[in-house]
Each structure stands twice: as structure tokens, then as C-alpha cells.
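The protein record passed on below.

***
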Amino acid sequence: MKHLKFLLGFTLMTSLFLTSCGDDDTNSNDPTTASFSLNIEGLEDLGADHTYEGWIIVDGNAITTGTFTVDANGSLSKTSFDVDADDLAAATTFVLTIEPSPDSDPAPSDIHILAGDIANDAANLTVDHGAALGSDFTNSTGTYILATPTDGMNNNENSGVWWLDPTAGPGAGLELPTLPAGWKYEGWAVIEGQPVSTGTFLSASGEDAAAPFSGTMGGPPFPGEDFVDNAPDGLSFPTDLAGATVVISIEPSPDNSPNPFLLKPLVGMVEMGATDHTPYQMTNNAASTNPMGTFSR
């Protein structure tokens, strides 16, 4: 009898389990929900405290479609998403944002990285959409010089980089579009393989937000930095930037990483024989660093 009771119990549990699985499958085909897919290239791992979140715009309102992460190879953790069928059918735009994780705010952050208008059940997702960054940055230009004006001496001149054009008065060395809320520009020098920030900024005609490595004297009113003091671990200042790389990146704000973000519209390879106070042109790199993708419902 004990064996019979066990078998009867096991049969009953198995039946309940199969019924439960069947219910789950039925729910996944719930006519009140519908799915869409994303195919995106060029995103990067945001770390443990930030995530990507999708939104559909319905009658001017943003409705979340859920979050996903990206691994070191750029692969999305999820590419298919279930949402309310009526909302999906009425959606006119898809927007991708960067959000803190965990996130107590149900609204989208200001950090919109991709967007696209939905037509014929599909959308091309780009950075230049008006609901994203509003520009693809392919027309951006950059000029820089090597100099160390903040140490007050005419030496170590190859140990600083400043984005200015000495032939213009001096004038601004960068031509960049105005960024929307949630984004800032940041300058970098890659010294012996290590990226070192020169500070964040919003305008090419004004000082940037930091000068941790500069000397005690004031610098010119343009983005830039002298690498003459407080060297990071592994580096020695003053240095010689000949042979280094200088970069202008576009960073989410707030920013959780000490390294350049994936958007790097301008890059300059400093010549081995580079001389100070000589203007050098940067290369536009936007087309190769802008993420892009598609939405389909």
C-alpha cells in the first residue's frame, strides 16, 4: 500500500507539473501581449551598476519594454521582448536609454543613445535621431597643440595637449555639435597604453571641468591638460606625448567608468616627431564607433 500511495502521489504531482507547464505556454501566447526584436551592434558592457532599457513611444508617452545587458563581445543578453499588444501596435518610436541598476525611477533617464521612428513594423536605430543624441558627429573636426602653459616654464612642452587653434587668435580647436541633456564631451590622452582624462566639457570655447595634472598657473580658456603633476599609478609626469593618442569622446552623464565611452568621434595619433605649439589635425572616427541597430515588430 505504501508503494501504491507513492506511485499515486507521484502521478498526481507529475500531472500538476505538466498542467503548470502547459499554463505557462498558454500565457506566453496571451493575445494581449506581442513581441518585438532588437538587432544592435556597437554597444558595450556598462558594468554592474548600469543597464540598457528600451522604450516605445505611444501617444507621446514612454512605455518601458524592459532592460538588457551587453557582454564584452557586444552581444545583447536579450533580443526579443514582450509588451502589451495594443501599445506595440500604436508605438511610433523606439528609444534606447542607459539607466542605473537598480533603478527606482520609472521614467527614462536623460541618457538616450539610440532611437528610430517605426514605419512598416520596423525602425532603424541611430545616434543622430532627435530622440537620441541628435547628431552622428561625422562633421566634427579637431585641432590640437602640444604645450604646457600651466607650469610657467618653457620646458616639458610636449607633456600637455590643448584643443585650440593658435592661428585663430587663438581660437577653438574643436567643431562639435551641442549635446543634449545626459551627455558630455571628454578629452583623453592615451599615454603608454593608459587613457588619462583631460576633463569633461560642453563647449569648445571654454575651460573643461578639471585640471588634476596641471601646474599652478592658469591655462588657456579651451579644453586641455598639462601632464606635469600627480601622475596616475604606472605613469611618470612630465612625459612626452609624441607617439601617444589623443581622443575626444562623448560620455554619459553621470558616468561610471574611468575609461572612454564607446562614442569616440575624434582621434589623433601624435607624430613621433611632434613639436610643441604646432597645430595638428584629428581624424573623424564617428562612423566606426557609432552604434546602430534595428527594431522589428
User: Anything to note?
Assistant: Residues 2-28 form the longest helix (27 residues). Confidence is low (pLDDT under 50) at residues 1-27. The chain has two domains: 33-134, 141-289. The helical segments are 2-28, 85-90, 286-289.
